């Protein structure tokens, strides 16, 4: 099952709207004869790939799957049915699929086909891996990861007018890997106007794994010459706004979506996240500035935190202090699940407590 989970992680950021699933098929003699993981866009499924890999050797074998095989007919027949027809003797599943079309039906279909089914092996790890998919099904929103870089004295914006990086090159490479593991990345209009970011994954070999770029732009101030607009034909860009306009941006390939504002004229994050979930997004990386990060923390829409801290002080003239972050960590709402170093930089990873 650990091998299957490792395979499933390969699909993170690419499987949406489907979950990232891994499957390993082991013969009666204990030899791995098939393996697979969810393909980009969600199909083919992991089980389909593993069965094709195993061929006739699937008969009498044991299949280890990180999520319950599907039980409904869509573009293909159910994976549960395919496993039974292939002659798989036993299936070991990690977690039940919360999708109402499945939710136990896949395991039931396998048992009805004479397959011995065991459920719950490394279940917590499997649920954590696909937490974004679970949230989209049960809460109508994707998993939200806040990524931020700060100095040792807690500032996120260097001296006004300075283009210096806060973190080192190794940290920035890992930040690009985070982009590759999410299917959408979000910033506010302030970041677009101040930094003109590209928001793509530029790691060698992973350039095709750039997430959909989402811009929160209530008054539609995104300029036509912004990098996210100029490259929108190559990397999808979605601009969320509260006004009726945007044809000048659409001509460049950007998509503009109007959402109803709240009484204060702002875009409610609940509606933003619901709109992304309806589009199939399961994993959202927020790289916005202090304003956007603080808003997600205040409204309780931060599931994971990736906090890079550089061993340098920016001083009193720097900006971007995040009191909401300090309050969230002090409150105990988050548990630290990872700590690693990139040279002199430190990365702390936190997860919202269940």
Taking all residues together, what is the mean pLDDT?
94
Strand ordering within the main sheet = 10-9-8-7-11-6-12-14-13
What Rg do the Cα atoms give?
Answer: 22 Å
Report the span from N to C terminus: 24 Å
Count of distinct strands: 14
Helix content: 25-40%
* Uncertain parts: none
Helix-strand sequence: HEEHEHEHEHHEHEHEHEHEHEHEHEE
Major sheet attributes:
9 strands, mixed
Estimated share of beta-strand residues: 15-25%
In DSSP terms, counting alpha (H) and pi (I) runs of 4 or more, how many helices? Answer: 13
**Helix/strand/pairing class, anyone?**
alpha/beta
Helices and strands in order, then pairings?
Blueprint: H1 2-9, E1 22-26, E2 32-37, H2 46-54, E3 62-65, H3 79-85, E4 90-93, H4 105-112, E5 116-119, H5 123-129, H6 131-139, E6 143-150, H7 169-180, E7 184-188, H8 189-195, E8 212-216, H9 227-230, E9 237-241, H10 247-250, E10 255-258, H11 269-278, E11 283-286, H12 290-298, E12 304-309, H13 323-330, E13 334-342, E14 345-352
Parallel strand pairs: 3-4, 4-5, 6-11, 6-12, 7-8, 7-11, 8-9, 9-10
Antiparallel strand pairs: 1-2, 1-3, 12-14, 13-14
Helix pairs in contact: 3-4
List the keywords.
354 residues, 13 helices, 5-stranded mixed sheet, 9-stranded mixed sheet, globular, alpha/beta, single chain
């Amino acid at each position: 099952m650990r091998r299957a989970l490792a395979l499933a992680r390969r699909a993170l950021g690419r499987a949406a709207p489907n979950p990232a699933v891994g499957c390993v098929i082991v013969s009666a003699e204990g030899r791995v004869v098939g393996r697979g993981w969810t393909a980009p866009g969600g199909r083919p499924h992991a089980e389909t790939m593993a069965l094709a890999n195993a061929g006739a050797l699937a008969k009498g074998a044991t299949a280890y799957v990180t999520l319950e095989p599907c039980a409904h007919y869509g573009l293909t027949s159910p994976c549960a049915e395919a496993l039974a027809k292939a002659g798989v003797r036993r299936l070991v599943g990690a977690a039940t699929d919360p999708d109402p079309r499945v939710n136990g039906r896949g395991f039931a279909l396998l048992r009805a086909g004479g397959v011995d089914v065991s459920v719950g092996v490394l279940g917590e790890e499997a649920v954590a891996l696909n937490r974004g998919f679970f949230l989209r099904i049960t809460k109508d929103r994707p998993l939200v990861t806040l990524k931020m870089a700060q100095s040792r004295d807690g500032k996120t914006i260097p001296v006004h007018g300075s283009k210096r990086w806060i973190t080192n090159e190794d940290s920035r490479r890992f930040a690009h890997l985070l982009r590759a593991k999410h299917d959408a990345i979000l910033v506010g209009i302030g970041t677009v106007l101040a930094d003109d970011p590209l928001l793509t994954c530029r790691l060698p070999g992973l350039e095709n794994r750039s997430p959909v770029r989402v811009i929160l732009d209530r008054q539609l101030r995104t300029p036509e010459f912004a990098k996210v607009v100029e490259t929108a034909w190559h990397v999808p860009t979605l601009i969320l706004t509260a006004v009726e306009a945007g044809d000048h941006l659409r001509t460049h390939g950007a998509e503009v979506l109007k959402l109803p504002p709240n009484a204060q004229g702002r875009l409610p994050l609940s509606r933003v996240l619901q709109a992304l979930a309806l589009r199939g997004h399961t994993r959202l990386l927020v790289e916005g500035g202090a304003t956007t990060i603080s808003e997600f923390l205040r409204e309780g829409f931060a599931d994971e935190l990736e906090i890079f801290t550089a061993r340098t002080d920016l001083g009193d003239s720097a900006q971007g202090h995040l009191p909401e972050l300090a309050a969230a960590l002090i409150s105990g709402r988050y548990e630290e699940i990872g700590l690693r170093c990139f040279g002199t930089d430190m990365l702390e990873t936190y997860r919202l407590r269940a």
